[in-house]
Amino acid sequence: MKSANHIEEIRRSKGLTQKDLADLASVELGVVKQMESGKIKLNSHTFRRICHALGVQVEELFELQKRENNNYIVMMYLSILTFIVFPFGNISLPLILWINRKNRIRGVASHGKDILNFQLTWSILFYLSFVLYSIPKVYALNTHFTDFLEFKGLIPIWLLLGLINAVYAIVGSYLAIQGKRIYLVAIPFLRNS
Fold first, then answer.
1. What sign has the CA pseudo-torsion 124, 130, 133, 136?
2. Pairwise pLDDT comparison (159 vs 60), residue with the higher score
């Protein structure tokens, strides 16, 4: 819906006629009629006066214009699974999707921040396990370079972390279909406002 449709809905819900709105906003009746019919777009000054006359914040009206699209949010959660094929795909693809639609689709901003916070936390744990596993091997005097390349001890840890991330993606997408969010402990790199 366009802002004109929302203005008309709000006007009608308040029991105002087009003339009442024109009088309250100090604009010509023709402006209100043409705006509601979609024939003209208002300049910012007139738009603000109409919003003020209706008792609506301009920001609220723009929030009403955001579409509902849980499928896009589901796609953001499922894009996490790219970590299986591409290193840092679990961060880069959700980040691209989030930046692209965070101001256009309701819920993308908050879900995107949740996803990115969890993925950044998960990636730190994943790569930190490699570093912590490698440090003792580097400092051991009798370690050969081939021993350093063996990561058998990390496989169970990486499988567990991978499973946790895959479950997060699947459960998150399932809850997004229902219009809910998943809450897990994560470092709040991006804060919800």
1. negative
2. 159
Higher pLDDT, 140 or 71: 71
Q: Which long-range contacts (CB under 8 A, 24 or more apart) does 39-46 make?
A: none
Average pLDDT over residues 105-119: 93
Q: Give the largest CA-CA distance in the chain.
A: 89
The dihedral sign for the CA sequence 109, 111, 117, 120: negative
- Rg (Cα) of the chain, in Å, rounded? 26
CA 188 – CA 193 distance, rounded (Å): 12
Map out the domains of the chain as residue ranges.
Answer: 3-65, 68-177
Residues 21-47: pLDDT tens digits? 999 999 999 999 998 888 888 888 898
| Domain 3-65 fold | 434 Repressor (Amino-terminal Domain) (1.10.260)
Closest CA relative to residue 176, chosen from 80, 60, 95: 80
Instruction: State residue 1's pLDDT score.
Output: 39
Dihedral pair phi/psi, residue 68, rounded to 5°: -90, 130
